[in-house]
Structure formats: structure tokens, C-alpha cells
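User: I'll paste a sequence; please echo it back and then give the predicted structure.

Assistant: Echoing your sequence first, then the prediction.
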Amino acid sequence: MNINKLSFLNYTTNNNTASKKETSFKGKKQSDVTNPINRELYPVGDLFLMAKKDVKMPELIIDEFYASENSRMLKNPLGVSLSRFSPKDKYEILQYAEDIKLHRSGFSKIINAKNDDKTYRFNTDEALTLFFDAGDKIEKYPDEFKRILNEKDSDGNPRFNSKDCSLLMQNIELAKLYPKAYSSVLAMKNLGAVDVINIMLNDGEIIEEYPELLDDVKHLLNQKENNNTKELNSTIKKLYIQKKAKIAEQKAQEREREEALLLEKRQKQKEELARIEEERRIKNEAAAKIRAEKRAIKNAEEKKIKEAKMQEWNQKVGWISPEQLFDKVNTAVNNKTPLMLENGEVLPDETRDKIAYYINRSGEKSKKIINARYKNLQPIFNEKDCCEILSDFDSYFYPQYMSSLKSVRRDGTPVFSAEQCKELLKLKQNYRDEIINSFLLSTYRNFSSDDIVDIMKNSDVTIRYGSPFHNFVMQKNESGQYRYSVEQCIELAREQLEEYKR
């Protein structure tokens, strides 16, 4: 008979049953084979003996049986690789598939744990026991589990077996509650898991506060072959009491010294007090000087970075300083030569002369226009924009109030374009910055830069007290969208105001 072609599901026993129906396996460690016709139960051992008549390696039938059962149970994937296990071991594990799925990561950490020689750390029974004892904790604290696995005894062998690992992981919150104490106690190689937990439960708080107490305890452990945990606990508490008493004594002595110094200080003459004040003054001045130097260095670095950023923007935008522009315009006027921009464009002589007139009449205001920058340091106006504004300077108002025009979005890009800024500067509107900022920071509706320009250009209906504009701009339809665009709101408000006049 070819064992590779022998299927356990089609295997016929020698009790006069010739059914080809599938047999089923029930139980776990005392597995039986149930004949579906006669309902006779056969232990796996009996099945093994009966198979000897036909097969030289009957154990393969048992393996094939487990493999078949595993295939059936794995229709709902476990989510953890069981390739390292035999079919029988897989069968054992799959009995708890639903439990394992709850903490599959923890189970995976357990079954894949290895020794230094690359052999697996836990067998099937150990892995399952450890999982049911502490699988949830292992999944929650994988690093602590790895730390426990890596612990070695004084001979360099794995320090903790599966039961030790289970105990330590069940109480792993102690490591989180007292991390310094846990590390110190775990470092004592001749302590077993029970001793580690016992000491942490009894003395974890003490050791966390004074980890140096373990130095004397380690000395005690090294002197004894058989260590008594109760004695260790007693020794730690005794050392703790001594430590607290010593600290209390030191504090008392410190208080006495402070009182003596205070009495001495009160008895000093005025000249001594003056000397102390002078020393304090000198010290404060020195500290202030150091702070000022540091602040100056920091400011210089920030200024350097800012200037480099501004220079980068200047080149990108095509900006020149007020001094350069003024000199260029005045030179062109004095020499009666065309005014040529950096981009090669030549302005008409009439425009040149107008610019010269305004920069000589309103130099400081002109500089504010030229030096205007967004909050990202980008110049608002390039050379051509500045010339356009300065050639008709009387049409622009309040260049000293431009904080709202310098606003940038979260991504650092300007809210208003240069053209929009020019439009807004032409509006002779009181409190321009305050009004624009109120729409920029609006909590009831997000207004685009175009919306704000339209609102400001139509201020007679948009910011007028009692105007219906605000009612229209807040209205929404049934789907929660705004009913009207800003442009429509302006028109509706204007129409309604006209009706009021009639």
C-alpha cells in the first residue's frame, strides 16, 4: 500500500464496516474515531494498532488526520502562523482559536520566542499555558516580555521558564509603577521570579525612592547560598528606616545651621549688608550682561536668517529698496533720461516725473508702500507695482495701516494679491484694517479674498449699520449650504435699501 495515497478519511477498519463516509475525530488528548454507521468509538491508539496491518508507518495516518482536522478548522483564519508546529500540536492550539484571536499578537510573541541557539523557547503546552495566564499582558507590553525573555542567570542560561514568565507578566504593572525599582531588582541574578514579585509588592515603592538600598541587599545575597525573601524584605525595610532617620537627622542639622546663619546675618553691621547688596548688584549686572549678549547673538542670527529670506524674496518678486528706487528716479529726472525698470520695461517720462514729485513730497509714506511685506517676508509690491502706485499717489489712502493686507494663509501664501492690495488701498475707508480683519477671522462664514474686496468696495451696503447684508450672508438652505454668494448678498442688500428709501 502507498502511504502517500492513503487517506485517513477513507480508511476502512476491520470490524465489517465498509462505509466510505467521512469519519470524524472527537476529543483532544483521548481522541476517538467514530464510525458513522455503527457509532462504535475507537481510541486513536486502537486505530493506530489496526493501521499496522496495512501501513508500515501508521503514525502518518494520525498526522494526516490532524492535518485534515486543522484544514477544516482553519477555514476561519487564525491570523498567526503555526508553521513551526506538528499537525497534532496545531490541532491542540486550534481548539482555542477564538481565544487566541482576541490577543493574537500576544500569542505570536509567545510561540515565536527563541533561545540564543535559535530553538523555540516554549513548547505547545507551555505556550498555551503562558498565553491563557498572561497573553493579554504580553500583547499590551511586548517590550517587557522581550526583556524578561532576554534575562540570563549567572551561567548565561535563560533565567526564567514559562511559569516564571507567566508570573512576571501577570504582575508587569509593577514594572510600570516602579520602573527604577523593577530594573534594580531584576538585575539581581540570583532572585527567582517569585522573589522578584514578592520584593516588588512589598518594597517596590521604597526601592523606587532609594534604589541605592539594594547595594547592601546584594551584598547580603552574595553572602548566602539560600536566600530568604522575608529576610530580604525585612532587611530592605530596616535599611529604609535607617535611611529616613539619617535624612531626618541631616535635615535637622541643616535647619540648625540655617538658624545659626540667620542669627549671624541679623547681627551683622550695616556695612556688611551694604557689601552683600553691592555683590548682588554686580552679580545681577554680570548676569544681565550675559543675557543681553546671548539675546544679541540670537537676534543677530534671526536677523541674518530674516535678511537672507528677504533677499531671496526680493530676487524672486523683483523688488528694489526705496533708496535705490528714489535714486534711480531722481537720476533719470535730473539727466532727463528714460526710467528703466529692472525687468527692462521703460516708463513714460510723464510717469517718471509724477513718481519723482510724490517721492519728494511724501518720502516717508512712499517708503511704507515700497517696504510693505506680507507676514512671510514676501514684498507685496514689485518695482513696477510701486511705480504705478507712486505715479498716482493721491489715489491711495492710509499706507501706514496695512496690517490686514499682510495676512497669509496657514500654508504661508498671501491672502491678498498685489492687485487686490492696490484696490483696497484706494478705498478711503475708516478703520479699514479692523473691518478687513473682522471678515478674515469670521466664525460664521469663510470669506475669500475676492469676497472681502467686493465687501470693502461696496461698504455703503456691506458695513453700514443696520444693513440687511449680514442677514443675507448668513442664510443657508436646507442642505446647509449658503443660500447666496457674497456678490448676490450685496445686490440683495442694495435692492432692499433702495426699497426702504422709497
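The CA atoms of residues 282 and 369 lie 47 Å apart. Strands lie at 24-26, 32-34, 41-43, 339-340, 346-347.
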